[in-house]
Amino acid sequence: MRTLTFSTLCATTLAATGLFAAGNASAADTCDSAGLDLPDGFCATPFSEDAGAPRHLAVADNGTVYVNLANDVDGHGLMALRDSDDDGVADERKTFGEGGGTGLAIHDGWLYAATVTDIYRYKLDGNLVPQGEPEHIVTGLPQQSSHAARGLAISDDGQLFVNNGAPSNACQESDRQPGSKGQDPCPLLDNHGGIWKFSATETGQTFEPKTEYATGLRNMFALDWYDGQLYGVQHGRDQLHSNWPDTFTQEQSAHLPAEELFAISEGDHFGWPFCYYDPKQDKKVLGPEYGGDGNKVGQCADYEQPLAAYPAHWAPMDILFYDGDGFGSKYDGGAFIAFHGSWNRAPSPQAGYRVIYQPFENGKASGDYEDFAGAAGFTGSGETVASPGSADHRPAGLAQGPDGALYISDDAGGTVFKVTRASD
After folding, report:
1. Cα 289–306–225 angle (5° rounding)?
2. Which of 119, 120, 192, 320 pairs as cysteine with 188 (C-beta 3.0–4.6 A)?
3. Omega cis (within 30) before 273
């Protein structure tokens, strides 16, 4: 087993309660923040406030921002945005393509877009919207009732990585039912719960069961390829208390398990559905469906460990390793992660709704995460919201522009924000 180190959660309580570092909300002292809660010296504009339900983003070399839409707009599933007068706000907007979804990536002059069942690519030709017909790269991804969003990452040598979430909480005999035992082996792992690899250049590929690149991942569409390595952030399991009330309190259920950041290599197994990660114990432990009591480790010692861990039920949506020079050396080579907020934190307050920055060094998390675009700027009502649906904005996608700007999509408010650093 490859053992990986991970950053501590020393800042978890501070971040989860919304007590940010002093000055994070004062970017407006030097420039506008578009309502976001940013570190000192950073500015933001609402690049587009009419973007439907934008999920993942990709930015072309000419600055055109492409958006994969959760729901069709004007009968199309993709959107192109361009700022022709360089004022930080898109003045050109056009929809195209079909299907809609989440995953989006640009590689070698092509725009790759995911629907629930297919991966297409469009040749970028300098126009706002690609003029040619799309090529069909992958078909037959499993249709499923939950965890169906697809994330994409493409390696430098043209390998396409696609997540395939498991339509289940913990592979129980009766999904999400109190006391229902887990299946071992879990049949869902044959064609769900992992990352599949394809060629990014070969058309007509078809999904095949039992051919996964990595497995044991409940739901991971936050993917990025950086410096020769695939990375991803997983949505952890739910319902420890409601399904196992004699073993877990509501408070424990609200704060377990941690969301996990992984380095992903071929053949890795990350432990779902058998295990979850407990940050207080600093280890993976057996789920109650498989005989766990909150402390037992058992087979979980054999699975991959996280590089870093984040508070439970924050719902990671996207990860972006930053390699621009627009934000200063502090941010070079680290990862931004967008969290969407989730429903499963009662009786604790709702949380998430933010973009964090995770420092990296030599391929490993090198310190505690910090808020970059804090929750107060997204919820619109301070830190506390009654439910995810009551948040004004929910981060969903991240992309880096050719000028080093960071784009953040918000699929609740239909906004794409552009974040830059103020000039000295």
Report:
1. 120
2. 192
3. yes
Whole-angstrom Cα distance, residue 101 to residue 99? 7
pTM of the model: 0.91
How do residues 14-29 score in pLDDT, each as one tens digit? Answer: 333 332 233 333 333 4
Query: Which residues make beta-bridge pairs with 271?
Result: none
The SS3 call for residue 331 is helix
Going by their DSSP bridges, the two strands 308-310 and 275-278 should be labelled as unpaired
In angstroms, the CA 92 to CA 64 distance is: 9
> How far apart are alpha carbons 342 and 350 in whole angstroms?
7
Strand, helix or coil for residue 74:
coil
Averaged pLDDT score across all residues of the chain: 89
13 pLDDT exceeds 90?
A: no
Of 250, 211, 257, 267, nearest to 234 by C-alpha is 257
Look up residue 338 and give its amino acid: A
Tens digits of per-residue pLDDT, 204-246? 999 999 999 999 999 999 999 999 999 999 999 999 999 999 9
- 14 HSE (CA, 13 A, CB side): 10
What CA–CA distance (Å, rounded) separates 412 from 52? 9
Three-state DSSP at 15 gives helix
| 60: amino acid identity, one letter | A
